[in-house]
Amino acid sequence: MNIHDALFWFFSIAMLACGLLVIANRNPVTSAMFLVLLFVFMAGLFLLLEAIFIAAIQVLVYAGAVMVLFLFVIMLLDIKASERRKFKILGVVGGIAVGLAFVWELVIILSQPIEPLAGGGAELHGGLEEVVKPFFAHYMLPFEVTALLLLVAMVGVVLLSKKELK
Amino acid sequence: MIPFLLINLVKIACVIGVMLTVVAYTVLAERKVCAWMQDRIGPNRVGPMGLLQPLADGLKFVFKEDVLSHHVNKVYFTLAPMIALVPALITIAVVPWGSQLMIPGLAEPVKGVIADLNVGILFVFAISSLGVYGIVLAGWSSNSKYPFLGSIRSSAQMISYEVCLGLSVVPVFMQVGSLNLSQVVEYQAHHVWLGLCQPLSFFIFVVSAFAETNRLPFDLPEAEQELVGGYHTEYSSMKFAMFFMGEYAAMFVASALMVTLFFGGWSLPFAPFNVPAQTLGVGLAHIGIFLVKVCGFLFFYIWVRWTIPRFRYDQLMALGWKLFIPLTLLNILISGVVLTLMSK
Amino acid sequence: MQVERPKLTIWERTYLPQILHGLWLTLKHIPRRKFTRQYPEEKPPLYGAYRGAPTLVKDPEGRIKCVSCQLCEFVCPPKAIRITPGTRPDGSPDANVEKEPKEFVIDMLRCIYCGYCEEVCPEEAIFLKRDFAIAGYKREELQFNMEKLLELGGVQEDSIWKWKYKGAPPPDAPAAPKREAKVS
Fold first, then answer.
1. Domain count of chain C?
2. Fewest beta carbons less than 10 Å away: which of A58, A80, C37, C184?
3. Prediction ipTM score
């Protein structure tokens, strides 16, 4: 096992552990902090794939901005640690069903032989150009439409958050 | 492999050592410059002209009692100062301190930067955006009103100005054509300092950097008069010292970034300082030039702090969202148009 | 009163000129003359009726002037003064004064330097001198007893000569008594 594999296993297991702790914790701030840690480990996985740009964006956007907003909301609303709840039958059954569905999917995927990517991933360096060029060349229209959609959503939020319309 | 590791370890040790020394003396400079501006003398008792004051301050912090109130969340309370300090120390890794050092006995020249990342500036923003957790967690875990208000303010302020900071440097990288900070410096060494051709970008970057490092006029998370020190109200001893060092280390990084992005990094616009160093002496001179420029910006930080009063919170938000973000977007657009026209 | 708001130009409304002016102002102050007083080496000048630490004084003959009437003890607002009164021994030349303090303690931790004791003293025996840096390592050190107070006070050349000159003062006396001494 070389250092690459060791890091892969470290990041994966740490990610899974963090993910588990996010939902297992009763303190909302602790949950949020484990989610941050999860994003950082995920960035580590991207680094192992040499996708440096995506790794940096992952930390910048998710860990650095989105989760700060989460924390902001948690702190502003003063969410107390949730109490121990009784299990609801519907929830338990549904959860088990969804979990089994995922396991089934995994079994199907893993039972097929894994083939290397056709195009030869070695040419990609994960730099800015490889990631961004398709957006502005080949996928220009979908990209711009998405941007427009986000703008519409933003305007909508501003409109909704106004107490009175003048 | 082994020499590579060794060289890098030495580089890291040197960088951290120099940086923390500069940080310690920035604290002294802050007090001295403030005193001079107010027609006072400032600290002059410890050592000649008070030059050993940082040492005395450090000793004082070590020997102070570390108060841990019973109402704090102990884990986060202890963790927060570390989270505030570490990002500032990490981000300096991608900033080029010098061009290269020709060390006798080594086959290849040693680069003047620890990690020559292709996405250097993104790395800086990504890691420094984690620094806000130190402040937010400090305020939350202190479990008392003023720190909490400070951390609430801080989280909103940091996110807002991160956007300005990120957008303001886009024209720089459009002009250079790379996100690598070493290449930005080399571009400036060959052409012109970017502060001259991107003045708006430079101005917004400087102001946003003030907001990101919680310095006056944007030190709302601390706000001694309203919030009794804000997020670090409950802190004492070395934990407080770590916040303190974190603030000044962040100032150092911000100054280093301003120098690198807008003021030519290690270069001067004449030979032999506008090309990568071919001798050891010039290489060291490059590092010296870089440090002198950084100290200039640190002085600017201090100068502004003791001149301008604090902004109100709504003024801060209005400045960020209503003025700077539209301006940076406009700046990107205009730069794009101009660069396209010039390349034809 | 109505105050007209000045009309700002666009350049002024950016606040940049004010900020630049402020920066220039603070910069100008850096090389200016400094007003710091290097305290332990440079003492501050004390003017006129400066009220420092209260002390007990002796007359030019080296005798205690206090007659332990305890007026200062009564008037002292923070109750810093404690006097244990005593009598002068019968054989002494000043036996006519009858009383003198056996012990006289001023708690300098309580003293507020108001000067009432000096004002009220009928014998002009207590004076606020010019010491202001009263410091000690222990509370006990700052309970000034009679010995210490007399040492601080020293000899006061003043106009009350009641004990020496029964009747008219000699021709070479420095000053005439301003009020009648209580001579029995």
1. 1
2. C184
3. 0.79
